[in-house]
TrEMBL record:
This is CDP-diacylglycerol--glycerol-3-phosphate 3-phosphatidyltransferase. It is a multi-pass membrane protein. This protein catalyzes the committed step to the synthesis of the acidic phospholipids. Coiled coil: none annotated. GO terms for cellular component: plasma membrane. It comes from Gracilibacillus dipsosauri. It catalyses: a CDP-1,2-diacyl-sn-glycerol + sn-glycerol 3-phosphate = a 1,2-diacyl-sn-glycero-3-phospho-(1'-sn-glycero-3'-phosphate) + CMP + H(+). Keywords: Cell membrane, Lipid biosynthesis, Lipid metabolism, Membrane, Phospholipid biosynthesis, Phospholipid metabolism, Transferase, Transmembrane, Transmembrane helix. Pfam families: CDP-OH_P_transf.
């Protein structure tokens, strides 16, 4: 197994730790920053999420720079992203930071694209993520980080930067999903 794939697997291994931190009622105290409270456990979870998100860039950079792009990497990398982002969005619902309907649409798109990828894999075709899909992932991850920060340092503004990023991520998620299906619909046609 090459280094980029090991980095991707490390991202997957951070997900249960992230989930545990935001699911279990640890009592580690909290900070008040600009009149906004942020729990220590939420901040630690945020750091783990940010590290995991950074490995998404790192594994891709390393794979392209050293020509280590593999079919396993093309499969694992988007899967790791979907697992990390889905877990974070579901936990944000529990924290009251994201509306359930937005998360349902985002996760539904991820299931649909994964289904298309599975059909393609059955035909021996590996579908890599496009540029819009990569933008979607970045927007989702940045929105999650700002929402986990309880909108700090933007909480002095009259609007929520986290909410704006979340809805921008929603729009790009839907558009990229449509683009992905239009571009790869031939896979569905060929599998009949």
């Amino acid at each position: 197994m090459n280094v980029p794939n090991k980095i991707t697997i490390s991202r997957i291994m951070l997900i249960p730790i992230f989930i545990l931190l935001l699911s279990y009622p640890f009592e580690w105290g909290s900070w008040t920053i600009n009149d906004t409270e942020l729990s220590v456990v939420q901040f630690v979870a945020l750091v783990i999420f940010a590290v995991a998100a950074a490995t998404d860039w790192l594994d891709g950079y390393y794979a392209r720079k050293y020509q280590l792009v593999t079919n396993l990497g093309k499969f694992l990398d988007p899967l790791a992203d979907k697992l990390l982002v889905s877990a974070a969005f579901i936990l944000l619902i529990d924290l009251g930071s994201a509306p359930a309907w937005v998360v349902i649409i985002i996760i539904s798109r991820e299931f649909a694209v994964t289904g298309l990828r599975l059909v393609a894999a059955g035909e021996g075709i590996v579908l890599a993520a496009g540029k819009l899909g990569k933008l979607k992932t970045v927007l989702q991850m940045v929105a999650i980080i700002v929402l986990l920060l309880n909108n700090i340092p933007f909480n002095a503004l009259a609007f929520s930067v986290g909410d704006i990023l979340l809805y921008a991520a929603l729009v790009i998620t839907v558009i990229s999903g449509i683009e992905y299906f239009v571009k790869n619909w031939h896979v569905m046609e060929e599998s009949k």
